Design the sequence.
């Protein structure tokens, strides 16, 4: 009788078996990434310049003193961001770094929970352990924790913004987005979402939060104008190292400027066509529209902008999660080949084939983002042409099998 009580519960359905298998794997992966890889650190340290800037701010010393001739991590946050991160310097650097790692890991987990809620998926569904494992197995989450930067909190701000926007909590959705703008305005393209849905309060608070925080931080900073004169111009430049944008890889491989411009223009046209089709035919399908349009906007920003780094890809989690929707643009194998390119933690550097391995390693993110935009463009254009040929554009451009059975989220 005693031994029978100790017997582990046996899965009786496929869903139970999957959950029993994946929950321990997912939890142990999270613990490994946080307690081993992140604490150990590797290659670069994004946290050190942030801590030093916070300490300088608290002691009213100059913050924007980085030498941009070096490739070491620089402090690039605006005064509003310096104000928000200043408390990290109230304790010693080592414990502060550990705390920063834990906060970002928690932010990723909370963002995952909000994604489940956005798609009407429960914590006891098979999606929960799959999502947790998938997030922490990626390069983007792993290196965010290992390098100890703020991307986990940016992801949480993005997902909270979407979650609240979809629930018509307009002002609060803008607060979530505005807090990310105050530190790292990488999500600025997402302002298009409340703009097209005319949720004006979201735009007002998203812009107002960083403005207010800047007004508070400016007189407290020793050198706020140096951000304007030194750091801001550097942020506008493209560089040929640690840069997976077209312009960065193009410069690294010595491509002609005209070819780089042509590639950016070509993908720019794809992005505009995709966004038009999404707006024209999907803006009333809010969950699909928000998650898909955000993916197009952010991938375009990474690929076509002046700087795109692989671990920015965390911002694409809502698009990837949309695969559970029946009309998702992610339900095909080329889309997930693209995802491998910018999410996989695999290194393609090869001692046996150094040139080919280096090219694969340096190009995989650029090719992954490029392929993703091409897939979304191709899927949407094919749907449009098919619906036009079948004279059903007035009813939308969803595939016939989706039209016959209304789109819904699988909650297995």
Sequence:
């Amino acid at each position: 009788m005693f031994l029978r009580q100790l017997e582990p519960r046996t899965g009786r359905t496929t869903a139970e078996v999957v959950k029993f298998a994946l929950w321990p794997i997912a939890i142990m992966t999270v613990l490994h990434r946080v307690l081993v890889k992140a604490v150990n650190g590797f290659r670069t340290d994004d946290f050190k310049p942030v801590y030093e800037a916070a300490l300088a701010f608290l002691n009213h010393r100059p913050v924007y003193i980085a030498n941009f001739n070096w490739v070491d991590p620089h402090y690039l946050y605006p005064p509003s961001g310096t104000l928000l991160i200043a408390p990290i310097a109230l304790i010693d650097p080592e414990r502060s770094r550990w705390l920063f790692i834990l906060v970002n890991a928690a932010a990723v987990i909370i963002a995952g929970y909000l994604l489940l809620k956005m798609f009407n998926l429960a914590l006891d569904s098979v999606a929960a352990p799959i999502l947790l494992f998938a997030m922490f197995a990626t390069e983007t989450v792993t290196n965010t924790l290992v390098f100890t930067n703020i991307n986990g909190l940016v992801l949480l701000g993005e997902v909270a913004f979407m979650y609240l926007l979809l629930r018509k909590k307009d002002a609060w959705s803008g607060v979530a987005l505005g807090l990310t703008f105050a530190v790292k305005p990488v999500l600025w393209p997402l302002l298009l979402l409340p703009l097209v849905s005319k949720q004006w309060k979201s735009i007002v608070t998203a812009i107002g939060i960083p403005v207010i925080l800047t007004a508070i931080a400016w007189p407290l900073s020793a050198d706020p104008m140096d951000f304007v004169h030194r750091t801001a111009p550097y942020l506008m430049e493209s560089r040929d190292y640690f840069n997976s944008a077209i312009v960065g890889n193009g410069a690294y491989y010595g491509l002609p400027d005209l070819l780089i411009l042509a590639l950016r223009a070509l993908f720019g046209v794809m992005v505009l066509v995709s966004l038009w089709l999404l707006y024209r035919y999907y803006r009333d399908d809010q969950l699909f529209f928000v998650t898909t349009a955000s993916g197009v906007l952010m991938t375009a920003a990474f690929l076509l902008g002046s700087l795109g780094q692989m671990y920015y890809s965390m911002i694409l989690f809502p698009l990837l999660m949309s695969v559970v929707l029946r009309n998702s643009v992610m339900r095909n194998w080329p889309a997930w080949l693209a995802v491998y390119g910018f999410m996989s933690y695999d290194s393609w550097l090869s001692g046996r084939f150094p040139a080919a391995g280096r090219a694969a390693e340096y190009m995989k993110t650029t090719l992954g983002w490029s392929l993703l935009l091409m897939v979304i463009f191709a899927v949407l254009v094919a749907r449009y042409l098919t619906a036009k040929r079948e004279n059903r554009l007035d009813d939308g451009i969803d595939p016939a099998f989706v039209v016959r059975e209304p789109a819904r989220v699988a909650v297995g």
